[in-house]
Design a protein that fits this description.
The complex is a heterotrimer. By secondary structure, chain A is mainly beta. Chain A has strands spanning about 5-10, 15, 20-25, 50-55, 60-65, 75-80, 85-95, 100-105. The radius of gyration of chain B is 19 Å and the shape is globular. The chains are: A mainly beta, B alpha+beta, C alpha+beta.
Chain lengths: ~110, ~150, ~290
Amino acid sequence: MATPKPRVKVPKSASAGEVITIKTLISHKMESGQRKDKDGNKIPRQIINKFTCEFEGKPVFSCDIEPAISANPYFEFPAKVMESGTFKFTWVDDSGDVYTHEQAIEVK
Amino acid sequence: MQVTRRQALGLSAGAAAFVAFGPGITPAFADEAATEKMLMEFTGGKTPGSGKVTLKAPEIAENGNTVPISISVDSEMTEQSYVQSVMLLAEGNPNPGVATFHFSPMSGEASATTRMRLAGTQNVVAVAKMNDGSVFMDKKQVKVTIGGCGG
Amino acid sequence: MLKKQIILAATAAALAASGLAVSVVSAEPVDDELVIDGELKIVTRTKAPEGHPFDEVLSGWLYRTPETRALEADSFQNPGMLYVERGEVIWNTVEGEAGKSCASCHNDATESMAGVAANYPKWDADAKRPINVELQINKCRENNMKAEPYKFDHADQKALTTYIKHQSLGQPMGVDLSQGEMQSWWDQGKEVYYRRTGQLNLSCATCHEENNGRYIRADHLSQGNVNGFPTYRLKQANMVSLHNRFRGCIRDTRAEFPAAFSDELMALEVYVTWRGTGLSVETPAVRQ
């Protein structure tokens, strides 16, 4: 596929102190390095190896990822919001490419 | 070799059952030593206790390529007492490491859901490390079937 | 490490080759409702059309495990939606010498394509044969965009087909057999459906008509309806097109498999689509 595209679901608004659920999905083959091509040569590993979620620059949740995570990696996790602000999500590819996405939330 | 339909059905049913449900298969590709090593590195040599961590996995995975899995840890998630990290391991995969989730007091709750690859029927292990260094684990067996048509 | 598993698989395969390897274990399709995002009700069970061997036609969704079913019920969790998004990008991308994108003529797909794919395959009077969404896309590319037609199963073809079919989500699937010579292609397709082929001497009907609900090794056999294609298959962790699945199934009976979009497979598509008349389009469905 073209440049991996992230899909992120964050509620538009929440009350202060509420624990929301964030869902993230990104298109990526997650080539494990175990598969062999037609000639029997191992296809080199290329995966997303790290995912992070920050809120206003502070770490909320992150994941160190191994090839055992399925293609099109999906992560669902909670976050406690106290004030309005922006979540920043990053996915780091073995290749060094970094994909990012931002999503704001209004907290009353 | 002439096999009657009845014989073939009986044999194949047996084979299917054996393949899908046979408990004797697991040790063959379980790399418990490698899993143990990764686990101990994570816990700093401590043996994890049971409780606190719940690992949710299907009893039978429809396909080993994409197995939904989630963990949750019983914790207040305050600045004083929170879950630092949870490591997921697959005892029977070529490499036991799956993922390590890192939480913060901003998490609110210590839980996470993802999808993983399982090479065959095996145990999946979740180990949680608290900010005070205490460690807990949960283990579940997931049966991974060979499939039918389309393999 | 995997040796024992491979030996067991080989044993099972050898046993399977010796006869009809259908396990005597049986399980009913579930009594569950598919409502996407708690909003869109999907028809997964409906009265079969006149002349159908069954009373009721069932979606493949009902035969999957709870975890797999859940993936389709949440449009955010459904990995197939990544390809719908990709399809939308392609829809809006200019390609070919005419300098057009799909959007240039068809504007907003959510309007222009709404309900369209639910009535495919259709009769193509130009080619004098049935046409499905993949072939329609290629026809448009060649004639109107002056672009190269997609090779079978090109990633963009799958994504765009998924996107277009997704605009019919929830709509009842149906084929108009009164168009052109669709009826005679339906007849041909029916013949293909019931014809046993290959070393395993199986027809589509052997599994999907005579043994749906039973297990073939560890796969829960469905009625083999096509309302969810292209489908996100957990096994490939990717979209799988209908003709790819036809070829795969036939290959697994150890028969020579026809070329994608060949007369044989187009006829089969007409017939099999008819067999699921009334089921909602589920594209992108999630299957094993």
